């Protein structure tokens, strides 16, 4: 095993424990993966994420062939592999936070309610419910992720991707925060959304001042 793969497995286990500690997953729910070349490190099925260790991380090829690890890969492996085959994402995180699940019960889309949502691709779709681990869910999720860094899954949770494991975790946290803002606002009225002109102004300002660049 290369040092890169060993580090990736350790980082995934730590991220899994972090998700559990933050309440984003419970028991064996949720899964994570990260890519190193053509090798995918992914949490194993039946894994209690709060107890994840590097040895619980399975290695698979892009075609799904298990390369190393005692556990079978997560039942949502189709989503993870689909993301890597379709684009340049380097990590995928799937969680079931109460906030994201609650949002999917009352809306079909998360409109742009804060300018930081542009980092996720704008309005976030809620893909229709399908059983976990099914081809239907994987296909719907991958369609929803087209042009986005995150997507919501009806009655289920959320998936976020990123150019690194840290970025995917940050995108998931941002989505959770945005859903909470929407739900809090909806409790007292109809949430206002940012319109096209507002979003253009944000993009133009970001370019003008080099927003986000040290």
Automatic annotation (TrEMBL):
The keyword Metal-binding is annotated on this UniProt entry: yes
Organism superkingdom: Bacteria
Record carries keyword Metal-binding: yes
GO biological process terms, semicolon-separated: pentose catabolic process
EC annotation from Swiss-Prot or TrEMBL: 4.1.2.17
Keywords, sorted A to Z: Lyase, Metal-binding
UniProt cross-references to InterPro entries, sorted A to Z: Aldolase_class_II_sugar_metab, Aldolase_II/adducin_N, Aldolase_II/adducin_N_sf
This protein's GO CC annotations: cytosol
Class II aldolase/adducin N-terminal domain location: 10-183
GO molecular function, one term: L-fuculose-phosphate aldolase activity
Database matches in SUPFAM superfamilies: AraD/HMP-PK domain-like (SSF53639)
Protein name per the record: L-fuculose phosphate aldolase
């Amino acid at each position: 095993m290369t040092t890169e793969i060993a580090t990736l497995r350790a980082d995934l286990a730590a991220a899994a424990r972090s998700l559990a500690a933050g309440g984003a997953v419970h028991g064996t729910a949720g899964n994570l993966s990260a890519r190193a070349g053509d090798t995918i490190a992914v949490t194993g099925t039946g894994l209690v994420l709060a107890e994840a260790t590097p040895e619980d991380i399975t290695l698979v090829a892009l075609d799904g062939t298990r390369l190393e690890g005692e556990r079978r890969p997560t039942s949502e492996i189709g989503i993870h592999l689909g993301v890597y085959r379709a684009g340049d994402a380097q990590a995928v995180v799937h969680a079931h936070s109460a906030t994201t699940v609650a949002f999917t019960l009352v809306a079909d889309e998360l409109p742009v309610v804060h300018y930081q949502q542009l980092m996720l691709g704008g309005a976030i779709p809620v893909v229709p419910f399908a059983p976990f681990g099914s081809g239907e869910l994987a296909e719907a999720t991958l369609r929803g992720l087209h042009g986005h860094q995150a997507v919501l899954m009806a009655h289920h949770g959320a998936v976020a991707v990123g150019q690194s494991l840290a970025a995917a975790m940050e995108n998931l946290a941002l989505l959770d925060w945005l859903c909470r803002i929407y739900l809090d606002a909806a409790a007292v009225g109809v949430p206002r959304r940012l319109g096209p002109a507002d979003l253009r102004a944000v993009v133009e300002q970001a370019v003008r001042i080099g927003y986000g660049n040290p």
